[in-house]
UniProtKB/TrEMBL annotation:
<feature type="binding site">
    <location>
        <position position="54"/>
    </location>
    <ligand>
        <name>substrate</name>
    </ligand>
</feature>
<dbReference type="InterPro" id="IPR002698">
    <property type="entry name" value="FTHF_cligase"/>
</dbReference>
<comment type="similarity">
    <text>Belongs to the 5-formyltetrahydrofolate cyclo-ligase family.</text>
</comment>
<dbReference type="GO" id="GO:0046872">
    <property type="term" value="F:metal ion binding"/>
</dbReference>
<keyword id="KW-0547">Nucleotide-binding</keyword>
<dbReference type="GO" id="GO:0009396">
    <property type="term" value="P:folic acid-containing compound biosynthetic process"/>
</dbReference>
<keyword id="KW-0067">ATP-binding</keyword>
<dbReference type="InterPro" id="IPR024185">
    <property type="entry name" value="FTHF_cligase-like_sf"/>
</dbReference>
<keyword id="KW-0460">Magnesium</keyword>
<dbReference type="GO" id="GO:0030272">
    <property type="term" value="F:5-formyltetrahydrofolate cyclo-ligase activity"/>
</dbReference>
<feature type="binding site">
    <location>
        <begin position="125"/>
        <end position="133"/>
    </location>
    <ligand>
        <name>ATP</name>
    </ligand>
</feature>
<protein>
    <recommendedName>
        <fullName>5-formyltetrahydrofolate cyclo-ligase</fullName>
        <ecNumber>6.3.3.2</ecNumber>
    </recommendedName>
</protein>
<dbReference type="GO" id="GO:0005524">
    <property type="term" value="F:ATP binding"/>
</dbReference>
<dbReference type="Pfam" id="PF01812">
    <property type="entry name" value="5-FTHF_cyc-lig"/>
</dbReference>
<dbReference type="GO" id="GO:0035999">
    <property type="term" value="P:tetrahydrofolate interconversion"/>
</dbReference>
<keyword id="KW-0479">Metal-binding</keyword>
<feature type="binding site">
    <location>
        <position position="49"/>
    </location>
    <ligand>
        <name>substrate</name>
    </ligand>
</feature>
Amino acid sequence: MTLADIKAAARADAFSRRKVAFANRKDSDAARLLTALTGHAGKVLAGYMPMRTEIDCLPAMAAHKGAVGVPVILGSGRPLKFRGWSPEAVMVPGTFGARVPESGDWLVPEVLIVPLLSFDRRGFRLGYGGGFYDRTLEGLRARGPVTAIGFAFAAQEVDEVPIEATDQPLDLIVTEAETIAPGA
């Protein structure tokens, strides 16, 4: 079995587990994320527009004291760019169905809230397979300090995410049950 096969099987399992967790979600699921972001007030934050069964980070984005952006996919094999967002922003459909601001300034985030399918306590995440966040984090980290926060349901934790050399680790993982600092 190849690494691609292993990741494909892991994604199928992760989608199933996340679907169940999403069905059992509570309005308070983002409370820990708000707490994790308090030390980052004033920094440029990048969140995401939740799709399908992703845990909702919008309350934390709206409460952030500083500029907030959301990812815009510019093409396959390219890193993400981040356009300024506010709760009042006019949103339009973007690539893969994710909503993006119709207009706004481009931002360079210092803190990213990263969606995921599964995570492990080493700080690795399994994404959707496009490599967008890995390329983006690699480029941002080459420029300076950046904090990547995985936001997920506790049920998305696995013993070990299958990884390859290009996978970028998370600095923090926030679930509705706990905050995990890999390597701490």
